[in-house]
Write a structure and sequence with these properties.
heterodimer; A: 167 residues; mainly alpha; Four Helix Bundle (Hemerythrin (Met), subunit A); 2 domains; B: 134 residues; Methane Monooxygenase Hydroxylase, Chain G, domain 1; two-stranded antiparallel sheet; 2 strands; NADH-quinone oxidoreductase subunit J (chain A); quinone binding (chain A); quinone (chain A); EC 7.1.1.- (chain A); transmembrane (chain A)
């Protein structure tokens, strides 16, 4: 086991434990903080894969900005103890069964996919994740999706203003 | 100037995950330092827990009411607009690194991108979404 493998296992354990704590913690604000820990672990994975740009963007956008939005959404809701809905036991059972089915399908798909057999992720090699190569691809090959994304942002702005502003 | 440029190129050739080792050390040190200090102050510091001392107060005034009140939606509007412009800035980084390589074609691409954002910004200003007072 070399250093990268040790780091991979540590980061995976961090991500899984934090993701479990997101679900298990009673306080929604604690869930958000655990989700930030998940994003940090995933950023560590990106750095191991030498996808440096997406690692930093994951930290800035997801762990920074999106989690602030999550906090806002939580605080927009009414979080008093007595208003919290008690979930039915049958609802919980149905949720567990459907989520278990989804997990089984995903695992069997990954096990059957011929592209993924006996392959491991390229750890710490390959340069496509570096910001210079990514920019070259983005502004030459994928320039049309890049411009379309700005229209997506425009529609998001208009939508936010239309929904959030009364008049 | 050329020296700086070659330095940048050498840096890009050797750009591997190992370069992030100092950042990792720094993160571990920061977390460890804060955790040690908070733990030490909790262990070593004097504690006298009386009902008066454990009471919540702010500026000498006892708290009243509930903190779990739903807040105004205008905070959320500002936050979501911030996130959109935050993501816009993210797209500038790959352009800035390849500024010389992309030339004028890349410049017009980014100008179109910024113009579309500017239209949205003008729309936001005209609608008064950033005005705090109603």
């Amino acid at each position: 086991m070399n250093v990268i493998q040790v780091l991979f296992w540590i980061l995976s354990a961090m991500a899984l434990v934090s993701a479990l704590m997101v679900l298990l913690s009673k306080n929604p604000v604690h869930s958000v903080l655990w989700l930030v820990a998940v994003f940090f672990a995933i950023s560590g994975h990106y750095i191991l894969l030498n996808a440096q740009f997406i690692a930093i963007v994951n930290l800035i956008v997801y762990a920074g900005a999106i989690m602030v939005l999550f906090l806002f959404v939580i605080m927009l809701m009414n979080l008093n103890k007595d208003t919290e809905p008690q979930k039915n036991i049958w609802m919980k059972l149905a949720g567990a069964i459907s989520a278990g089915c989804l997990l089984m399908i995903l695992v069997s798909l990954i096990k059957q996919a011929p592209e993924l057999q006996a392959k491991t992720a390229m750890m710490n090699e390959g340069g496509i994740g570096l910001i210079a190569n990514l920019g070259k691809a983005l502004f030459n090959t994928y320039v049309v999706p890049f411009e379309i994304s700005s229209i997506l942002f425009l529609s998001a702005m208009v939508g936010a203003v239309v929904i959030g502003k009364k008049d | 100037m050329t020296g700086l440029y070659t330095l940048l190129q050498i840096n890009q050739l050797n750009n591997t995950a190992e370069n992030y080792f100092p950042i990792g050390v720094q993160i571990i040190f920061a977390i460890g330092f804060v955790a040690t200090m908070i733990g030490l102050s909790a262990l070593v510091g004097p504690k006298r827990k009386t009902s008066d001392k454990l009471e919540n107060f702010s500026s000498g005034i006892a708290s009243h009411g509930n903190a779990r009140q739903p807040m105004a939606v205008k905070y959320f509007l500002i936050a979501i607009l911030f996130v959109l412009f935050d993501v816009e800035v993210i797209f500038f980084y790959p352009y800035a690194v390849n500024f010389k390589f992309l030339g004028w074609a890349g410049f017009w691409e980014i100008v179109l991108f910024v113009v579309l954002f500017l239209i949205g910004f003008i729309y936001i200003i005209k609608k008064g979404a950033l005005q705090w007072e109603d």
